[in-house]
Write a structure and sequence with these properties.
The chain is α+β, with helices and mostly antiparallel strands and 222 residues long. It is 40% helix and 30% strand. The chain starts with 18 loop residues before the first helix and ends with a helix.
């Protein structure tokens, strides 16, 4: 079961986020121009591997690109911050502002170029939630969901009118669905043939060597 909810998702952020940051993100989510939520079919994976990829997004996109599962590319800029290019028109910066068992919260700002309209600029709060149900052999059945809140730049909305809003909503819904499916596809590929996945990633240029080594150890490879 996956799909975006027809009603606007409720923007409830973890209370453990520092007060000032939480207030800023909550206000952004409350004022969101568009929002979307998608939940995917549960899949079996090792929780430590799944969470490692969540916590190392730059490395995770090396995995998904090596497996030809997605166009997403994440890299660190000269200032140390993370940049994202989804390969379909979205480019921007993001940071993970909260990380705890079962939840990740990220803040992003950037732009989307559809080719039909001027660039749609905005900010976003993305909440990744997942539940773990232990199965066997250190694996768990993982149920993941992604909720996104996007606040569009008011000048762009005024210029492009309702069309910009509808394009952004469709984009948000598609991205939420795509990201949940990507979790499952990458996890299944790793479960089926961890050595093949590691070797495919190892051959990619610019793979962070420390993260590659940690990934190898997590997979139990020699």
């Amino acid at each position: 079961m996956s799909g975006a909810l027809a009603a606007k998702p409720s923007p409830i952020l973890p209370a453990q986020i520092p007060a000032g940051e939480r207030t800023r993100l909550q206000e952004l989510a409350d004022a969101a121009s568009v929002s979307a939520r998608a939940a995917g079919e549960p899949f079996v994976a090792r929780p430590d591997v799944f969470e490692f990829l969540l916590d190392h997004p730059e490395f995770a996109t090396h995995v998904t690109r090596a497996l030809k599962l997605a166009r997403y590319r994440i890299w660190r800029g000269p200032e140390g911050g993370l940049w994202l290019d989804d390969g379909w028109g979205v480019v921007g910066q993001f940071s993970v502002v909260y990380s705890a068992a079962g939840t990740r919260v990220a803040y992003a700002h950037g732009q989307y170029q559809s080719g039909l309209l001027p660039s749609i600029r905005g900010q976003a709060v993305v909440v990744i939630e997942y539940g773990l149900s232990p199965t066997a052999d250190q694996r768990s059945l993982i149920s993941a969901a992604v909720t996104g809140f996007v606040k569009l730049d008011s000048r762009i909305v005024a210029l492009a009118g309702m069309l910009a809003g509808s394009v952004a909503t469709a984009k948000a819904e598609k991205e939420a669905k795509r990201l949940v499916k990507l979790f499952a596809k990458a996890s299944r590929a790793i479960e089926e043939n961890p050595a093949h996945v590691h070797e495919a990633v190892r051959q990619r240029p610019d793979v962070p060597p420390n993260e590659l080594e940690e990934f190898r150890r997590l997979l139990g490879l020699r």
